[in-house]
């Protein structure tokens, strides 16, 4: 049994943690965690024999990597299997040191670290022959279009790569080469939200191929203001019986009513998707009612989030009717959708129908918060409490 204790170092209390055995003797550390370490904290730091070499897991948060390297806080990380850097400075220019001789690296996360073009090139060179790399997270790193080719090279070369997160990078056209590589990969999870996909002309074809031709199970493409042809391509791909996609996140994807209708029609045929989340996608009653109708036929979908769309009481009534027939949906998110012109009786009918149709072998969640006045919230809460059983939870 091991315990986590602080490393003995001048002016470095609470910042550097490593693994020791019960006697207090330093054993081969399998994890090192550094948080809040910058030049000032390291001013009087002196390396000792306790300094860790070759940990299996390295996690560094809100610290200056350049200072850590120069002060030799970590001597070597050649044996690392997992490296995580979040909100760090001094990362740019140190990719080579970070990945030097790490043939067994499986998980690499560099989030919000402001990388440059040359860093992406260094990364591509270092990981291209890593047969072990399974996850790559590069979120909010200011990766620009020119870095797309390097990321695509990594996707092509790392044959065991299964998870890729690139959210909130202004990749624009650089995403084309990444998506082309992804279409021929074995990725299971791909997060490409907020990378300005809506500006890519070839996006409909790429999204269709991505869903149709790969074993992808989770796709996050929110905050990209997708055009109608891209929404249509996704809908057509969802109709294919052989696809593996289980989760589709489309927050702020500009689906609108036309897209909402097409996606609902596709989901009537789809048998793979378990989570669908077109939140804040400018869907109104036409799309909302069609999505509700879909629930009377779809027997696979388990989670549906429609938060921050603009529905009236007509959509509320449609969902109340749909939930009377649907027995497979676990979570229905209708929070902050407005329900203009609603009546409390319609809300109660939604809750009653959802309660009556909930199977005994699982819990069903209905999210309705942000739609009603405080007095109405209390009335609905009381009604839900009176109807409450072990299988229904209503969030007001």
Descriptive overview:
- It contains twelve helices and 20 strands.
- With 396 residues, it is an alpha/beta fold.
- The strands form three sheets. Strands 1-2-3-5-7-8-9-10-11-12-13-14-15-17-19-20 form a 16-stranded mixed beta sheet, with helices on one face. It has a two-stranded parallel ribbon with strand order 4-6.
- Strand 12, helix 7 (228-238) and strand 13 form a beta-alpha-beta unit.
- Helix 4 (148-157) packs parallel to helix 5 (174-182).
- The model is unreliable at 1-28 (pLDDT under 50).
Compose a concise summary of this entry.
This protein has helices spanning 65-70, 95-99, 117-127, 148-157, 174-182, 203-213, 228-238, 256-269, 285-294, 313-325, 344-356, 374-387; strands at residues 2-6, 16-21, 31-35, 52-53, 57-61, 74-76, 82-86, 107-111, 135-137, 163-165, 189-191, 218-220, 247-249, 275-277, 303-305, 311-312, 331-333, 338-340, 364-367, 392-395. The protein is α/β, with parallel strands linked by helices and 396 residues long.
Task: Give short descriptive properties of this protein.
12 helices, about 30% helix, disordered N terminus, globular, 16-stranded mixed beta sheet
Mean pLDDT across the residues is: 87
- Envelope shape: globular
Percentage of residues in DSSP E strands: 15-25%
Radius of gyration: 25 Å
For the largest beta-sheet, the strand count, sense and barrel status come to:
16 strands, mixed
Helical content stands at 25-40%
The number of helical elements comes to 12
Question: What is the spatial order of strands in the main beta sheet?
Answer: 1-2-3-5-7-8-9-10-11-12-13-14-15-17-19-20
Estimated structural class: alpha/beta
The tally of beta strands, per DSSP, is 20
Terminal residue distance: 45 Å
Low-confidence stretches: 1-28
């Amino acid at each position: 049994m091991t315990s986590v204790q602080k490393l003995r170092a001048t002016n470095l209390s609470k910042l550097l943690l490593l693994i020791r055995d019960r006697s207090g003797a330093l054993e081969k550390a399998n994890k090192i965690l550094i948080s809040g370490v910058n030049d000032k904290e390291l001013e009087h730091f002196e390396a000792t024999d306790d300094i860790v070499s070759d940990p299996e897991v390295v996690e560094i948060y809100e610290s200056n990597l350049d200072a850590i390297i120069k002060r030799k806080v970590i001597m070597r990380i050649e044996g690392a299997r997992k490296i995580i850097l979040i909100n760090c400075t001094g990362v740019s220019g140190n990719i080579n040191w970070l990945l030097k001789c790490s043939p067994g690296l499986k998980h690499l996360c560099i989030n919000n670290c402001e990388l440059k073009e040359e860093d992406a090139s260094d990364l591509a060179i270092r990981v291209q022959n890593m047969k072990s790399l399974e996850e790559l997270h590069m979120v909010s790193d200011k990766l620009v279009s020119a870095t797309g080719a390097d990321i695509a090279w990594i996707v092509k070369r790392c044959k065991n790569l299964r998870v890729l997160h690139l959210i909130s990078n202004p990749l624009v056209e650089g995403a084309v080469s990444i998506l082309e590589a992804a279409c021929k990969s074995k990725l299971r999870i791909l997060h490409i939200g907020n990378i300005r996909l809506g500006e890519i002309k070839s996006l409909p074809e790429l999204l269709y191929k991505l869903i149709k031709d790969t074993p992808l199970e989770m796709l996050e493409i929110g905050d990209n203001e997708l055009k109608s042809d891209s929404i249509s391509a996704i809908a057509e791909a969802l109709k294919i019986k052989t696809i593996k996609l289980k989760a589709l996140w489309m927050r702020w994807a500009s689906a609108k009513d036309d897209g909402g209708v097409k996606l609902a029609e596709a989901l009537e045929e789809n048998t793979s998707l378990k989570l669908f989340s077109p939140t804040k996608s400018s869907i109104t009653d036409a799309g909302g009612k069609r999505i509700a109708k879909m629930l009377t036929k779809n027997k696979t979908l388990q989670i549906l989030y429609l938060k921050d769309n603009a529905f009236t009481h007509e959509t509320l009534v449609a969902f109340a009717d749909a939930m009377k027939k649907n027995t497979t949906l676990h979570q229905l998110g209708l929070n902050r959708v407005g329900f203009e012109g609603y009546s409390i009786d319609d809300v109660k009918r939604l809750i009653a129908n959802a309660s009556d149709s909930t199977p005994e072998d699982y819990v069903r969640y209905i999210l309705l918060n942000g739609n009603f006045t405080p007095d109405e919230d209390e009335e609905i809460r009381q009604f839900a409490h009176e109807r409450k059983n072990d299988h229904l939870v209503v969030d007001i």
